[in-house]
C-alpha cells in the first residue's frame, strides 16, 4: 500500500499551472524527503519508499522519472497510455494502463495564489483533500503543460489535476492520513532541453510484465 501511494505521487508529480502557448520540454531535478510526527517512525523507512534525488523528463506527453545512481525508473508513454516501472533490483518492467482510476475522483479543491517562491518563481498552490490524503501542488508557468497531453491519464487523478492547473509542479506535498506520513518533493534544478525520443523507449534487454 505504501509503495502504491508513492507510485501515484511519483506519477503525478506536479501536473499543474498557468496556460501558455508551449509546453515545457526538458529536465527537472527533485529532492525528495519524508517525515512523520509518529515517535515510532524511523528515518530508514524513507529510504525504502523513495530515492532522495530524481530527474524528471517531459516531452509532448511522455515522461520519465530516473533516480540518480540507481537503475530504477518510471516511464509513461502517451501513445500507449501505459506506465512502465522498473524497480532498483529487478530486471522486470511492470506495465499498467493509465486509463483506470486508482484514487478518489471527488475531493475538496482549493487554489491559493502566490503562496511560496521556488527557484525564484512565485508559485500558486492547489490543495486537494480526500478521505485518505491531503495533496498540495505548487506551480508556475515556467513549467507549463498542455492538458491535452495527459487527458487520458486517469491513474492518480492526473487528468483531473491538470484540467484545473496546467503545469508541472515545482513542489508537491502528500500527507497520507492513515500512515501519518508526509512525502515532499521539491525542484532544485530546471533545465530546458531538446530531448531525444530514445529517452522514452524501453530497453530490449528487460522483460515486460502486465
Write up this protein.
The protein has 210 residues and is mainly β. 11% of the residues lie in helices and 41% in strands. It has helices at residues 2-11, 44-49, 158-164, and strands at residues 26-35, 53-59, 62-67, 73-77, 82-86, 92-97, 108-118, 121-129, 133-139, 171-176, 181-192, 207-209. It has a twelve-stranded mixed β-sheet, covered by helices on one side. A hairpin with a 4-residue loop joins strand 4 and strand 5.
The tally of beta strands, per DSSP, is 12
Average pLDDT, all residues: 86
Structural class: mainly beta
**What would the principal axes of the Cα set say about the shape?**
globular
DSSP strand content: 35-45%
Task: Spell out the helices and strands N to C.
Answer: HEHEEEEEEEEHEEE
Largest sheet: 12 strands, mixed
Number of helices, counting only DSSP H or I runs of 4 residues or more? 3
Low-confidence stretches: 14-21
What percent of residues adopt helix (DSSP H or I)? 10-25%
Between the first and last Cα atoms, what is the distance in angstroms?
A: 19 Å
Q: Tell me the Rg in angstroms.
A: 16 Å
Strand order of the largest sheet: 7-8-9-10-11-1-2-3-4-5-6-12
Amino acid at each position: 500500500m505504501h509503495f502504491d501511494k508513492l507510485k501515484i505521487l511519483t506519477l503525478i508529480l506536479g501536473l499543474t499551472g498557468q496556460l501558455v502557448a508551449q509546453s515545457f520540454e526538458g529536465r527537472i531535478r527533485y529532492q525528495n524527503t519524508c517525515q512523520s510526527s509518529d515517535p515510532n517512525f524511523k528515518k530508514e523507512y524513507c529510504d525504502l519508499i523513495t530515492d532522495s534525488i530524481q530527474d524528471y523528463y517531459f516531452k509532448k506527453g511522455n515522461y520519465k522519472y530516473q533516480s540518480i545512481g540507481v537503475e530504477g525508473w518510471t516511464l509513461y508513454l502517451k501513445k500507449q497510455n501505459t506506465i512502465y516501472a522498473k524497480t532498483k533490483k529487478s530486471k522486470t518492467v511492470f506495465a499498467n494502463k493509465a486509463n483506470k482510476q486508482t484514487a478518489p475522483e471527488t475531493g475538496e479543491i482549493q487554489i491559493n495564489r502566490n503562496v511560496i517562491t521556488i527557484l525564484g518563481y512565485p508559485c500558486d498552490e492547489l490543495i486537494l483533500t480526500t478521505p485518505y490524503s491531503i495533496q498540495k501542488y505548487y506551480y508556475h508557468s515556467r513549467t507549463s503543460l498542455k492538458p491535452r497531453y495527459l487527458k487520458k491519464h486517469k491513474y492518480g487523478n492526473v487528468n483531473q489535476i491538470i484540467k484545473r492547473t496546467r503545469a508541472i509542479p515545482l513542489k508537491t506535498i502528500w500527507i497520507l492520513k492513515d500512515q501519518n506520513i508526509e512525502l515532499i518533493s521539491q525542484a532544485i534544478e530546471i533545465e530546458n532541453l531538446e530531448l531525444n525520443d530514445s529517452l522514452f523507449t524501453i530497453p530490449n534487454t528487460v522483460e515486460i510484465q502486465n
